[in-house]
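Sample pair:
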Amino acid sequence: MILFSILTLAVIGILTCVHIYRAKKHGRTLVCVIGTDCNAVVTSEYRAILGIPLENIGTLYYGAIAIFAGLLLAEIERVYLFDIDFLFTAMSFAGAFC
């Protein structure tokens, strides 16, 4: 049940990143449900790391989490030489600092 929840949240994260990317690409303003200015965030000086937009990094990150959760749900324990549990833990730990 927890892996399914993680997979669901990862898909929601991917959809959010794609929504932000498309809104920025088409010049649309973002609407925040919490009542603050989302455009101030996505157009700030911190909108990219090493020239890579954060929504692209987020899409890759959430995609990797979704893949690892999906593999664990399918009960595939090893991919190549890496233990999926270790990679999943490392990705989660790295995401805590982003």
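The beta strands are 48-49, 52-53, 78-79, 82-83.
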